[in-house]
Amino acid sequence: MSSQLKTPDLKVNLVGMDRPALEDYFVARGEKRFRAQQILQWVYQRGVTDVNEMTDLSKALRTDLQKDTEFTFPEIVSEQVSADGTIKWLLRADDSNAIETVYIPESNRGTLCVSSQVGCALDCTFCATARQGFNRNLTAAEIIGQVWVADQRIRQLHHGRQLLTNVVFMGMGEPLLNFKQVLPAIHLLLDDFAYGLGKRKVTVSTSGVVPKIDELSETIDVSLAISLHAPNDETRNELVPLNRKYPISELLAACKRYLQNKERKESVTFEYVMLDGVNDSEQHAHQLVALLKNISAKVNLIPFNAFEGSGYQRSSQHAIDKFSKVLMNNGIVVITRRPRGEDIDAACGQLAGKVVDRAHRGNHYIRMYERSLISKRIETQCV
Q1: Is 100 a catalytic residue?
Q2: How many CA atoms lie within 13 Å of 213's alpha carbon, on the beta-carbon side?
Q3: In order of start, what are the domains of the chain with their CATH numbers?
């Protein structure tokens, strides 16, 4: 599938083209390569998508581009704002599917959690997205389009201020199973003529697609996060079925190779959802210490965010604290994530969107999601 959104009039959508692709496009038109830099700055830094306003382009080029090209982004279907300031957008990907994107503001940064697929095929048992089934990969235009739409909306809400500082691929889908489209989006995030984010400000989170971790390491330098969630194969096989193909030993070996390829010292972040009675005992904590003893790691403990029919419960705060203490006493950097956006189902593991999946497994959850939106609107109107 092309990295550009399909458009009915067959115009070329320039959204999602990274700088090399745009340079090739303009050279093929008989233009200079620097036209790519100009377009990137207008679109991603200034938010301008009307070619007529791009005044450093010649009038003739503007006329041609208006005829042949366009800038098409996902459309906002709904916006929900949490009491803690978290914002969740439901974005239309096409006529039958929608994805979710979440902005998490903090005192010193603003993080956007983006989706890479419509649904997810990995079937992690604690994740709402998995219940939707899988439809398709997002295009590069739809991925970077989430960033553009969110950035423009955040600026509207905050009087033009630039508050977006970090982007994490932790939304719907497994980004490394859509590597071909995720990569140009990452290029645009890092490109100084587009968003210009630092390498440590962009994080790719994976459930453990080992060959693609190696490909990521060889291709681009960003932060890596691993959805680990268990310290042994027996438990992880149940929580993250991909583990049956790429067990923990292979996954950790890939993480070590990833770190070896980096110019400066850094760590891999291991995400660990805390599930009551499943993976949260002190014994599990000691197993995790042994597992990570030979790797530069930090652990992100994530209190489970419940959704209807999940079958799991969040670990008690006491259990989380004890687990964390074991890790810290053994020299592991631990961050216990504070749940954000729970009141709008925007917390980690709660993103569901609207997915028409191949087996239609998601229909029930789509109806549930729509009913929840309606009920929340009614509650708001009644307050």
Answers
A1: yes
A2: 24
A3: 12-70 (1.10.150.530), 75-369 (3.20.20.70)
